[in-house]
Amino acid sequence: MGDTIATFETTNAGGTMAARCFGRRNCSMAQGEQMIAGKSTGTGIPHAWAVRLTRAHKKLILLPIDTLVISASLWAAVAVRLESLWPVYVWASGWWLLLAVPFAGVAILSSVGLYRVQVRSMGRHGALRILRGTVLIALVLTAFGYFDNRLVIPRSTPIIFALLLACSLIATRMIGRSYYRWLNEQGVERRPVLIYGAGESGLQLLSALDAGREFRPVAFLDDEPSLVGSFVAGRRVHHPRDLDALLANFGIGDVLLALPSISRARRKEIVEFLSQRSVKVQTIPSMAELVSGIETIDKLRTVGVEELLGRDAVDPDVDLFTSVRGRSVMVTGAGGSIGSELCRQIVTARPTRLVLYEMSEFGLYLIEQELAQLVPNCVELHPVLGSVGDEPRFEQAVSQHSIETIFHAAAYKHVPLVEANPFEGIRNNTFGTECVARVAERCGVKRAILVSTDKAVRPTNVMGASKRLAERVFQRAQQRSKTTLFSMVRFGNVMGSSGSVIPLFQKQISAGGPVTVTHPDVIRYFMTIPEAAQLVIQAGSMAEGGDVFLLDMGSPVSILDIATRMIHLSGLDLKDDDNPHGDIEIVFTGLRPGEKLFEELLVDGSALPTAHPKILRSLDVMAQEVDIDAALAELHAAVDNADRDATLALLRRLVEGYSIETITKSGVESGSVGMQNSIDRLDPSGVSLQPATAQR
């Protein structure tokens, strides 16, 4: 069979060995016969012969079968109409019809393209070809009776004949399709699965899975009352409350979501419900991906923990893309997680020019290659290799390309690494931002937007302190500038960014564990990278000068809860004291140097709404009692001299809430101090008293 995948397996004391033969023409006879022999001794030879059939052979088999079916349908039609098995007065003069009509019928069926339809994929289109062919064959029978007066054929006989023939032809092909599927499944253990969603998408997914070899759909789940209890394509639709019984009865380990168009909030509810069981949850692509043709209904992907955010997307405000549309735009750190997504979304807004400024050659290569496939012809794309700390090089790039808007996303962001390398962190995050501000002002850049972090608020680590200083650099630049609007956008963790906790958990789960969590009470704010980048662009367009924008991060999420749910969504059991025979264990490693139990977005606890529902404007103001220019000059000298004590002392003086005790040379005490600082600002429920969401 041209498309058959034959499989055989041999079981012995050592286990099961499965060998697959992709049954095209290069599939040997021995392999096909071995496949069948492994499953059936008495009927192995006929099945092995069927495996080796080519499409031409299958057509040659269908022709005599259809000839017999047409002849039998004609005889049956006359018998039914005249209530006699062999009415002599009909067949005495019309016996030749049992030969002529079948041959004419086969020719007609061939002309309507029936023999180009694969039996294994027989569906609606094949059935329509059969109906068209049977009507034409019935008309041929009518014509024979009309032109030959010797024939005694009742006028209703062609109608009965057409109905019987259509049913018979469809039935033979359904039998052939069932046989093909049975043959295709021999030696393959298809995993039983549930499909959540019994609508049109669920039905399409079922058809795709039935034609495959990996999954065996056993039932549907749906909470629509009108569907519960009904049957869809032969599978019963159950209410979600029946999930546990179905898992136990069928040994199901996978649930497939066929709900491409539901809201994120509803998807969150469903994923939370499923994540309480040890089932692997996969989903079909989103409706946007299906409509655009990027993905197909059978392209399943594992449900990520981002599904638990449950935040409905807010459509971007086209009026808030003025900072990039039709302008010459530069993104620093263009190869990073946020920088690369900024680039992807900026090109869709059609700037005149997009300059990718990146220090990593490999990172720049990757994003340039990706954008080259996406960028419209009207947009110029320029990759520039360089560091934001190299002021002459940066100024050359800004001047050469007449940059109007800069998104400054270049930064060292990994807290433990910056904690171990504080001078480099300050050079890149703070002094690099100084270079960007000076160049933007000198070159007449219209807007400069700093991508900041919630770790800049009352930081307990060098990374956060260096980013808070970067914010103050932009605020000081705004006080001096008469041409450039400087603004900052502050937000929390993004799902899936390089080095973040989600990819780490995924890697640890794939490796069999353990999953490492720093502390059972750690909570974080999360949003997706595309959402964060989109909001950064829109916030930059609302800037009036010196603004600190905050992105709505939703509700904080427990890191321990994320780890637990990721284990369950992977179809594995958590190994703990209550379940010592589980699959994956969670190990607590203690807070890392400079790490907090929770993060905040506000320095002084106040913010105002903006024109966008997911963007707030902070009322943070720069402290006036410190001469920032003189202090930064001192910091330059301390960093250049690698004077750690002086550097930390300056950070404590310049950054609100930063304590020098949070960092030690050995890094041993920092975790406990950071933890205590965090605990002091928690209410009895364990939730921060000062995150941005508390002010809304």
Q: What is the structure about, briefly put?
A:
With 696 residues, this protein is an alpha/beta fold. It has 23 helices and 25 strands. The chain is elongated.
> Which CATH class of the largest domain applies here?
Alpha Beta
Mean pLDDT: 76
Number of discrete helical segments: 23
Low-confidence stretches are: 1-43, 661-696
What overall form do the CA principal axes indicate?
elongated
Regarding quaternary structure, what we see is single chain
CATH homologous superfamily of the largest domain, by name?
NAD(P)-binding Rossmann-like Domain
Spatial strand arrangement across the major sheet: 12-11-10-13-14-15-20-25-24
Strand coverage percent? 15-25%
Keywords:
single chain; 696 residues; alpha/beta; Rossmann fold; 4 domains; nine-stranded mixed β-sheet; seven-stranded mixed β-sheet; 23 helices; 25 strands; 16% strand; disordered N terminus; disordered C terminus
Describe the structure.
The longest helix has 29 residues, at 157-185. Mean pLDDT is 76; it is low at 1-43 and 661-696. Helix 5 crosses helix 6 (124-147), helix 6 packs antiparallel against helix 7 and helix 12 (337-348) crosses helix 19 (529-542). The strands form six sheets. Strands 12-11-10-13-14-15-20-25-24 form a nine-stranded mixed beta sheet, sandwiched between helices. It has a seven-stranded mixed beta sheet with strand order 5-6-4-3-7-8-9, sandwiched between helices. It has 696 residues and is of the alpha/beta class. It contains 23 helices and 25 strands. The radius of gyration is 35 Å and the shape is elongated. The chain has four domains: 4-39, no CATH class; 55-183, no CATH class; 191-303, Rossmann fold, CATH 3.40.50.720; 318-680, NAD(P)-binding Rossmann-like Domain (Rossmann fold), CATH 3.40.50. Helix content is 44%, strand content 16%.
